[in-house]
Amino acid sequence: MKKCFFIVFVFAMSLSASVYAQNAKSAPEDFNDFFKKFNSDKKFQVTRVIFPVKYKGNNDDFELADYTMTKEMYKILNLNNKADEKYLKRTLVTKKNKVTLQERGLDSGIYIDYVFELKENKWFLKTWIDQST
User: Would you give the DSSP letter of residue 108?
Assistant: First the structure.
């Protein structure tokens, strides 16, 4: 009986080690694929925002202030709308596990940075900083 239990125990341990090794070796999600789906699938987008999301924005005196937004208050973003390119420049700044999408208005006061973070091999919108005037 002990021998049978020992064999089952060893098998279970080797199986769990194999599953752990596969998960540890899984490649990080490609940001471009994530970003495309983030902007086209509303349900997916909501699952990839870290709530409550903390962000910065100008207050009534145009001073940068901290805000927090719940899932219920969140509005879907469309960060790759081609029609916006007439008046908006977008730049992606990539650092190891972080991508910042910089939106700058052409002849307007739009100045927003959206910060995405890689967590457990998946991309999430972590925060944004809106210094628009």
Answer: S
